[in-house]
Amino acid sequence: TWTALYDFPGTSREHAVSFSNDTIGYVGGGEYLSSDLHDFWQYDRASDNWIEMPDFTGGYRSYMCGFAIGSKIYSGTGHNNTTGFDYADFWSCDAAPVSRWVRQDSLPSTPRELATGFVIGNEAYIGTGYKGYVTTNLMLDDFWKWNETTNTWTQLASFSGGKRDNAISCSIGNKGYLGFGRDENGIWKNDWWEYDPANNSWTQKNDFSGGPQLVPLAFSIGSKGYMYEGGYDDEFWEYDPVADSWTAKSPFPMGIRPGMCSFVIGTKAYLYGGRDQAGYYSELWEWDQNSDTWTR
């Protein structure tokens, strides 16, 4: 079952960046009617309340990456629809109390949009994506690690599944998982790969049996990963890394809604935004891992 919560009070949007720490979810940037946004918000589940944060100092953009480590949140990369620019910069903001955004070291590689990433311990991992500006159209497969303590980036083994954008990823335990997305030939994928930071290596896992997916989203809770198909249908799947298999869960009750974002607090996931032929949405949905129910 899915459950209603306090809907997002800002502008409806798609392609926002989202992530969480132990207790708070964060949503920022994104796109509405082809115009980028730069506002940032935090969601407190305990009070079921949204609080507006300082606007993202990096400016208006969509298709960003972001993550939370310790007492700080980070966001960067992405695309500006007005200028056509892609970015490699990264910014941080204290999570509690909320402070202004501070420039960090940029990703020392190609500016990009539609990248993906995950966090393992106190380190963030980001890679793949797309750089498109005027005559430059470049798919990427490079992969990088961010160390918060030293404020430095380290290049890792490139993603073994090949160059792509729109990939999804999550971390389960001390491993990262990445797959799906669109390759250099415009083909949507259904492969799934495991990254082991201990030996900096990629291992291909079983393909998703449901076939390629159009702009899905992913997150993890505990020892399982999850994928909402989003662009093709309402199906919602659980990945078990031990069995290397996918199991269908309760479908998303509003059907197809590409461009949504997600974050996790405890054993519950929260999905927000997106759009369909009827328009853009501000609804916040909660999924409970223990009961496999959705709340709105």
Question: What are the defining features of this structure?
Answer:
296 residues, mainly beta, four-stranded antiparallel beta sheet, 30 strands
Set down the secondary structure blueprint.
Blueprint: E1 17-20, E2 24-28, E3 31-32, E4 35-36, E5 40-44, E6 49-52, E7 65-69, E8 72-76, E9 90-94, E10 102-104, E11 116-120, E12 123-133, E13 136-147, E14 152-156, E15 164-165, E16 168-172, E17 175-179, E18 182-183, E19 192-196, E20 201-204, E21 217-221, E22 224-228, E23 236-240, E24 245-249, E25 260-265, E26 268-273, E27 275-276, E28 279-280, E29 284-288, E30 293-295
Antiparallel strand pairs: 1-2, 2-5, 3-4, 5-6, 7-8, 8-9, 9-10, 11-12, 12-13, 13-14, 15-18, 16-17, 17-19, 19-20, 21-22, 22-23, 23-24, 25-26, 26-29, 27-28, 29-30
Secondary structure tally: strands: 30
Structure class: mainly beta
Main beta sheet strand tally, sense and closure = 4 strands, antiparallel
Read across the widest sheet, the strand sequence of neighbours is 1-2-5-6
Rg result:
17 Å
Average pLDDT confidence is: 94
Q: Could you tell me how far the N terminus lies from the C terminus, measured between alpha carbons in angstroms?
A: 9 Å
Q: Helix count?
A: 0
Element-by-element helix/strand order: EEEEEEEEEEEEEEEEEEEEEEEEEEEEEE
Low-confidence stretches: none
Helix content: under 10%
Described by the principal axes of the CA atoms, the overall outline is globular
User: How much of the sequence is in beta strands?
Assistant: over 45%
